[in-house]
Amino acid sequence: MSSAANVPGSPLTPQLADLRSQFVAAKAEASELVDGLKESQFNWRPDPRRWSMAECLLHLNIVGDRYVRLLEKTLEDPGARSRTGQGPFVYGALAKWILANTEPPPKRKFKAPRSFTPAYGQPITAVLPTFRHVQEQLALLLEQANGLDLERIKVKAPGLGPVRFNLYVTFAWIAAHERRHLWQARQVRNHAGFPRGASGPVA
Q: Taking the mean position of all CA atoms in its chain, how far away is CA 35?
């Protein structure tokens, strides 16, 4: 029986279409948040222990790039390509807990692994275009995953040792993680001490 995975250009399944809309929304929100900022504002920290807007986005770039490479490798594997399915796919109890604790506003705080810790003092012209590019890559990967069995295909979780999640949970976690740190960046821009200059609060 044929599947959408075997028909180039087929419409995304509803669940993948929803995930694509989440990555499109993240791309638009990042652009809106950064619009009109000076480099000094982009790199301003509420206090030395908290990230700037630049660090929030750079962290997402680091994590996103790692996941894009893992997903590309996974989706190129012939074994994965042979596992087809249309869904709908569901989350297990553990996945629901992980996603609920990733979504903003944060219910739990997690320390980023050293390899995912962003460097301070990054230019908008490097960070924002990279973030937008990562969202475009994720959208392309959703097209490659179209028609595959998202529950049976497993993906390594970077920074969590041998832990692996299925493809559906992986895409959903990336989107939730992006919302978490975009929310964090918005709190920085709306902070009372934020150096306003030409920019103002973001509603």
A: 20
Q: What is the distance between the alpha carbons of residues 188 and 51, in angstroms, rounded to a whole number?
A: 8
**Tokens of residue 154, six digits:** 């497993």
* pLDDT single digits (tens) 121-169: 999 999 999 999 999 999 999 999 999 999 999 998 876 667 789 999 9
pTM assigned to the model: 0.90
* Class at the top of the CATH hierarchy for domain 11-107+132-189: mainly alpha
Contact 124, 57 (CB under 8 A): no
The Cβ of residue 54 has, within 10 Å, a number of other Cβ atoms equal to 28
Overall average pLDDT of the 193-198 stretch:
83
Rounded-to-integer distance, Cα 201 and Cα 203, Å: 6
How far does Cα 34 stand from its chain's mean position?
Answer: 17
Q: Do residues 141 and 64 lie in contact, with contact meaning Cβ atoms separated by under 8 Å? A: no
Q: Which residue has the tokens 């652009």?
A: 31
Domain ranges of the chain: 11-107+132-189
CA distance 54 to 51: 8
Cβ 173 vs Cβ 102: under 8 Å: yes
